[in-house]
Design a protein that fits this description.
With about 60 residues, the chain is an all-alpha fold. Helices cover about 60% and strands about 0% of the residues. It has one domain. The longest helix has 17 residues.
């Protein structure tokens, strides 16, 4: 996992509210997370987790 940010990246995040980090996950990590997310979606029958969405909405107010 590539998580060392430069000062320029930090400033860009502060100005824009998002950051694109190239190669953040290596191929093995990416495969793991893809499978994990796919499994979670399948277990929920394709539905979003309402509790998580409600918590997220509260933080954005």
């Amino acid at each position: 996992m590539n998580f060392n940010l430069t000062q320029q990246q930090i400033q860009s995040y502060q100005e824009n509210g998002f950051l694109l980090v190239e190669n953040f996950l290596n191929e093995m990590e990416l495969a793991f997370w893809r499978e994990s997310v796919t499994q979670a979606i399948h277990e929920r029958g394709g539905k979003k987790c309402q509790e998580a969405m409600q918590r997220l909405a509260k933080t954005m107010v």
